[in-house]
Every structure is written in C-alpha cells, then in structure tokens.
Amino acid sequence: MRHACLGGGARLRPLLCHAVSQAGGGTDEDARAPANAIEFLHCASLVHDDLPCFDDAAERRGQPSVHAAYGESLAVLTGDALIVGAFQTLTNKSVKPAHLPALLRRISDAVSANRGIIGGQAWECEPNVVLTRYHRAKTGALFEAAARCGAIVSGQFEDHWADFGALIGEAYQVADDLHDALEARGMGKPAGQDRAHGRPNAVLTLGLPNALERLEQLLDAAFDAVPECQDPRPINSWLAAVAARLQPTNVQLPSEDPLCAEATLPDAIGEDLHAPR
Amino acid sequence: MRHACLGGGARLRPLLCHAVSQAGGGTDEDARAPANAIEFLHCASLVHDDLPCFDDAAERRGQPSVHAAYGESLAVLTGDALIVGAFQTLTNKSVKPAHLPALLRRISDAVSANRGIIGGQAWECEPNVVLTRYHRAKTGALFEAAARCGAIVSGQFEDHWADFGALIGEAYQVADDLHDALEARGMGKPAGQDRAHGRPNAVLTLGLPNALERLEQLLDAAFDAVPECQDPRPINSWLAAVAARLQPTNVQLPSEDPLCAEATLPDAIGEDLHAPR
Asked: Which domain holds residue A206?
C-alpha cells in the first residue's frame, strides 16, 4: 500500500479538493479526509490497471508496479485494501457527521461500476465506446468528486462545481491519451499502451490535431466553469499549474502521420462541451 | 455482479444483521442497507479469492466462478465494483444519518487490511500464522460487523454483540475448514483447497478430533454470548439454523488418519475462547 501511494504522483485530485475547499473558506483539516480518500481510490485504480490481466505494466511512476514488486496476489489485495482504506478514511474524526452522507455518496459514485472508474475500465472491454462518456467515467468522475467534496466540506453548493470538475477530468484524460500516443518521455510508465491494447484513445479516435484542439477547448471551458466563490485564487493557481502540466510540449504534426488521417471533430463531442451534464 | 451475488449462498451474514436488529426491536428496513452491504463485501471476497492468482477455482456455489464465466479482467472489476457497491448501499435513504458513521466504521474495518478480510487473505501468504487471529480477520470480522450493525440500527449497545459475532464467525471458519479437509459433498466448490495451497486450516493444524471439538466449543460459547435483548427469539432461531448447518454429518475418525496425529488442543486456543477480545 505504501509502494502504491508514496512512490510519486502529482496529487492533482486531492490538491483540487483542497483548492475548492479553500475557495469556499475551508481549512486544510476540513478537506483532508475526502482528499486522501480520493487519492487512495486513484492509486487503487492504478494498481489494478497495471495487473497482468489489464495493462500488464511492469512500471508505474518510474518504479516497478505493485504486481512486479510484490506479486499478483498482493497487488490484487493492495488495490482492494486501498479501496476499503478510502472509505475507512471517511470515518476520521475530522469529518463532520453532517457532511458524511454527501461525501460518501459522491466518492462512492465516482469509482462505481455504474457511473465511475470501474465502469470506465469495464468499457475498455467493449468494441465500441462513446469517448466522452468513457473519459467521464474513467477519469472525469473522480475529478468531479474531488471538486464536489471540496465544496461540501466548505459549505458551498456542490452542484456549482460539478461542470468544472468534470471538464478538468476530461481534459486530463485527453492529455494522458496524447502522452500515451506520442510516447512522451518522463511519464514513468510504458507509452503506446492504448494502441497496443486496442483501447479508446482520443488521438486514435480524433487524430492528433483534433485531440490537441480538444484539450485546449476543455481547459478553456474549465476556466470558464469556475463558479463565483469566496476566494478564487487557490483554484486559479491549481488550474494554471494543471494546464501547464497537461499541455504536451514539442508536438510535431507530420502530415503523413496516420494519426492525422481523421480530420473532423465530431459535432457530438463539440456540443457536449457546452452541456456537460 | 449478478452472477457473483445471485447464484446462491446462505446469506448467513445479512440474516445475522437482521436477526440482531429484530432482537432489539428494529424493522427489516432498518437493517437492509448494512445487511446488503455486508453480503456484497462477502461476495466480493469470494470473487477475488477464486482468481487464478489465489485459489484458481473454476467453480463457486455449483456454478462457474466469475473469472471462469467472464474472464479474469471482469472478475477483478466485479470484486472491485461489489466493494464500492457496498459503500454506495450505505448512502441509501433507509440509513439514518445518525447511524452512518458507526456503520461505515464497522463495515470498513471488517474488510480492511489491518483488521479484516483483506488482512486475513494476505496472511495466507505468510509462512506462520496464528490460526485464531487469521480466522477472526478472514471470517470473524465480517460476522462481528453484521452483529454490530444489527445492534446499531436498532439502538442497542453494539459492544454487547461483539463477542457473539466474533465467536460465530470463528465457528464458521472452523466448519469451513472441516468441510474443506473432509472433502464434504455439496459445497459447490472444489474441496481440499487448503492443503493444496498450503493454507492455514484448523484440521491440518489441530487434527480432526480437536477441530470437531473446537467447533462445538465455539458454538456453545456463541450461545452463551447472546446478550440480554428485547426479543431473543430471532437470534436463537438464526443460531440454531446455523449450528445445524455448520456441524458436519457422518464424520468418521479412522485411527490411522494422519489428520488425527496431533492429539492435544493447545492451551492458548482453549483460553482465548473465554477471552475473545
């Protein structure tokens, strides 16, 4: 569990939870339990995604993946234990009893089979997937939960943060797809995995230029979706740091690249940027 | 998820939760969410236990195991989804907000790496295990949680039910070991798995006569541990049904059986029957 959680990682989701809480006047203590729970769930998803029956990835964050280091049995149990540990974390005394029902609902939904990460992962087994829905479940849901939980613990109306969270989550997934497709260096995990495993990937589906355009659209939409709040500075700082991190550098667009073959951005995807729920 | 949950099973744990709730004057509605959550977690543990990296069991409850029916990837996700689904279930409106913190704590602890099922499963990877502690974590913890949750939702003092729940859980594990070692018919899963996988098993550790004696001791102790309550009939009915189910029938004790070699019941095990915490 330590290997899975303490071996690096940008902590984007817990930092988002803290930033939204701070934007509403919340303290670090207010956001700590849901922020940690969300990071545990993210780490759990990575441990199980790396298993031989999924990505069979030997590396994660520049270190051996959990199953490579400790064997498959303990990797399955580590993921299970991190899921359970996330919900144990919500029993911490820092969680106000009045906030617990909403936190539990948002966090459990975000990783669930019906609306969350597990559903997204299961869709990878399907022959046809709507890219936007897949990304929302696999990645967007937990970002949205992080934003909502930050709002809940600081007494803000959580629905005001839903679009922002979902958009930033989708942007993150498109950026991740770009890095995977471009075999970006420095990600600490094998690149080109989506193509190798026949998984949905924005670059493979949209072509490289459209995927880059889509990332920019999503980040712009996220900026626009920050709601009125007591102090927007923490969330603007978080967003600027994330945008800098997500945008790939030194991208070349060779005209003969088969990734560029599909030239049009489907209307449906452009549309639902403006109506994300 | 349906295959894992609806393919049979005795529902001992949720029925225990309902029986303890009824013993304290609770309604079926009061106990439903925690009872279902506990059964989901039990089913999740079976799905992951059956995986190739653990028992590699092709059958469960007389049907193909989840990984045999749907493949390893979906079996991992099914177990994950049932764990998450258990905690989603606690967000049902039938759960009184005042009860949620205690329910979440008891249920998450009972399946956790530190005190629950996942810890018990991980101990199977260890060369030496204290049998009582292993059984308490792997099986007893969830029975204890079922009893405690029944008490919580009906306004009883949950600690009064802790010893009862832990004892019945340990009795169940010893009975399961007896069935495994005796290759009992009608269990719907392959028998002799503990010996094949080098796992702790009460029969292999204590010898057959002592394991049978231990089961009887544990059931007697559980009967004695039922606390004073508004209506003891539901719990006595449950306990009688379980005792009838757990005790193996037609056990022969051939004197040349190597399982009978170890003749003495270790003092430590006899002692902690009387001081189970």
From this structure: 2-248+259-274
Q: Provide the domain count of chain A.
A: 1
Number of Cβ within a 10 Å radius of residue A2: 7
CA distance A57 to chain B (A): 14
Q: Residues in chain A whose beta carbon is closer than 8 A to a beta carbon of chain B?
A: 1, 44, 48, 51, 53-54, 71-74, 76-77, 79-81, 83-85, 87-88, 90-91, 95, 97-98, 100-101, 104-105, 108-109, 111-113, 116, 118, 121-122, 125
Chain B residue with Cα closest to A80: B80
> What burial letters (b/e) apply to B131-146, b meaning 16+ CB within 10 Å?
bbebbbbbbbbbbbbb
Chain-wide mean pLDDT for chain A? Answer: 85
Q: Which residue does chain A place closest to B96, by CA atoms?
A: A101
Domain assignment of residue B4, yes or no: no
pLDDT at B59: 94
pTM for the whole structure: 0.86
Return the CATH number at B73: 1.10.600.10
| A150 within domain boundaries | yes
Q: What is the pLDDT of residues A142-155, one digit of tens each?
A: 999 999 999 999 99
Residue B126 CA to residue B198 CA, distance in Å, equals 10
Q: Greatest CA span in chain A, whole angstroms?
A: 59
* Cβ-defined contact of B112 to A54 (cutoff 8 Å): no
Tell whether A254 is covered by a domain: no
pLDDT tens-digit map of B73-131: 999 999 999 999 999 999 999 999 999 999 999 999 999 998 899 999 998 877 788 77
Q: Are A174 and A215 in contact (CB under 8 A)?
A: yes
* Nearest Cα residue to B116 out of A103, A80, A46: A80
Rounded to whole angstroms, how far apart are CA atoms B112 and A195? 36
Residues in chain B closer than 8 A to A109 (CB atoms): 88
Q: Low-confidence residues of chain B, pLDDT below 70?
A: 183-191, 248-277
**Scanning every residue of chain B, which has its alpha carbon at the shortest distance from the alpha carbon of A121?**
B77
- Asked, for residue B128, whether it belongs to a domain, the answer is yes
Q: How far is it between the farthest Cα atoms of chain B?
A: 59
Instruction: Name the residue facing A73 among B73, B76, B125 (closest C-beta).
Output: B125
